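Subject: design request, 342 residues
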């Protein structure tokens, strides 16, 4: 198993991984009927064991995942990722592009369905169906016989989106992995106070003409000093993350709005209440020192999904894909082994 090491990153990222990401990955934009443009990237592997579809977290985008995508590709997988609407290079939804806004998490799910059906499947048709037809001289090849299996890989908010997606389309993916899933959040205030503030904020914004605003204490993008961050304990990977966003300011996203928070609370409650309806084979990895999402709610979902495997990584922070090697390597080893098991 080939995984990039922290000691290699300072030199390897700029000299190899970043150029590989920028020049070897296909990319484009898919325009939705409402005018939203979704940015996507695809890394093809000629002997792919599977096609891994990534659902990234809030604030994140394809560029942040360069090292992870490179590692997945080096281990024999094709990779597809898109930037959720309102972040990355996809269309921002408000006049202030920094506002973290969504009205309904099912909009994320609808976007995901559209980009898989209209972008990923045509790519796979081109890569696999035509080649298979040429070999067999038959136009009646079934798609599922020519594609490698599709696997879903989710992080944080992307896990909430992914859980809603696989519940709605249980046959779309062969397997799913949810990492540090946002099935519940650790609020900065007592839950009942935060919920009350969120509801009041949404109502107030509607009364003043459906404008939106940051939740209490949130503002435009501001890089946090490493020693204050709650995301990862790897300084090397944290510095690369912040450097990427400094070099491409268009990737930056500020805090959450009242509307995003309200939509997330509705989505997380729905996931917890209907977890038993998730039937895709899946595993959940979560972090022992996570202060972003709530492990108690994650464990509730683990117990309610029939046959769901889980792994708790003690002492790790929220972003397992960007953690120190001692946390990241076991997490990715577990994921890649799971995807490779029939």
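Subject: RE: design request

Done. Sequence follows.
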């Amino acid at each position: 198993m080939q995984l990039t090491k922290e000691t290699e990153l300072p030199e390897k990222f700029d000299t190899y991984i970043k150029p590989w990401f920028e020049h070897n990955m296909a990319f484009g934009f898919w325009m939705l009927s409402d005018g939203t443009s979704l940015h996507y990237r695809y890394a093809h592997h000629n002997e792919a064991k599977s096609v891994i579809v990534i659902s990234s977290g809030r604030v994140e985008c394809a560029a942040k995942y360069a090292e992870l995508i490179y590692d997945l590709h080096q281990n024999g997988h094709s990779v597809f990722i898109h930037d959720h609407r309102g972040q990355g290079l996809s269309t921002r939804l408000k006049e202030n592009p920094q506002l973290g806004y969504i009205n309904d998490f099912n909009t994320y799910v609808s976007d995901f369905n559209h980009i898989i059906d209209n972008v990923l499947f045509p790519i796979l048709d081109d890569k696999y169906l035509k080649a298979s037809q040429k070999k067999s001289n038959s136009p009646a090849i079934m798609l599922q016989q020519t594609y490698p299996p599709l696997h879903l890989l989710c992080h944080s908010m992307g896990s909430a989106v992914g859980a809603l997606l696989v519940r709605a389309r249980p046959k779309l993916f062969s397997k799913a992995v949810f990492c540090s899933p946002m099935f519940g959040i650790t609020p900065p205030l007592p839950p009942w106070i935060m919920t009350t503030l969120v509801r009041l904020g949404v109502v107030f914004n509607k009364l003043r003409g459906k404008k939106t605003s940051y939740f209490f204490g949130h503002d435009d993008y501001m890089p946090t000093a490493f020693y204050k961050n709650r995301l990862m304990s790897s300084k090397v990977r944290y510095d690369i993350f912040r450097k990427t966003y400094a070099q491409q300011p268009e990737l930056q996203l500020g805090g959450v709005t009242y509307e995003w928070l309200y939509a997330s609370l509705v989505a997380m409650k729905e996931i917890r209440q209907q977890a038993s309806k998730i039937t895709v084979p899946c595993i959940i990895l979560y972090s022992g020192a996570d202060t972003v999402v709530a492990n108690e709610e994650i464990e509730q979902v683990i117990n309610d999904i029939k046959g769901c495997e889980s792994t708790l990584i003690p002492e790790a922070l929220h972003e397992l894909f960007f953690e120190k090697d001692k946390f990241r390597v076991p997490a990715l080893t577990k994921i890649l082994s799971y995807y490779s098991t029939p």
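Residues 137-144 have pLDDT under 50 and may be disordered.
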